[in-house]
Design a protein that fits this description.
Oligomer: single chain
Strand content: 5-15%
Structural class: alpha/beta
Order of helices and strands: EEHEHHHEH
Pfam family, one: DUF488-N3i
Protein name: Putative conserved protein YeaO, DUF488 family
Strand order of the largest sheet: 1-4-2-3
Largest sheet: 4 strands, parallel
């Protein structure tokens, strides 16, 4: 299984596999018809409160990941996690799509690590 990460502002490629948007809000300035998003799993995004607290501050990254993974274990995220698990079972490759400028410290990266660590 290969899980790629890609900003919503980057061009979609056939090699991406299914593209799954994991942000709560649609990326500003990106037309839905151009984004080539197979699924928009809003409940896999961090809460607004957590996102604002984090502010993409790399010093807060470890604690952000801890808090975010707790949120993923909530009932609110359960259905979207089942959908994600199904997609992973059906495809050898998929791409988690996000809008953040920081390509290393964002919820898609934390979610990928969560999956690859066998927690999904």
């Amino acid at each position: 299984m290969e899980i790629r990460l890609k900003r919503a502002y980057d061009t979609a490629a056939r090699s991406d596999g299914p593209r799954v948007l994991v942000d709560r809000i649609w990326p500003r300035g990106v037309a839905k018809e151009d984004a080539d998003i197979a699924h928009w799993l809003k409940e896999l995004a961090p809460s607004t409160e957590l996102r604002k607290w984090f502010g993409h501050d790399p010093d807060k990254w470890p604690e952000f990941c801890e808090r975010y993974l707790k949120e993923l274990q909530s009932d609110d995220a359960a259905e979207d996690l089942r959908t994600l698990r199904q997609l992973l079972d059906e495809h050898e490759r998929m791409t988690l799509v996000f809008a953040a400028k920081d390509t290393e410290h964002n919820n898609a990266a934390a979610l990928r690590d969560y999956i690859l660590d066998g927690q999904l």
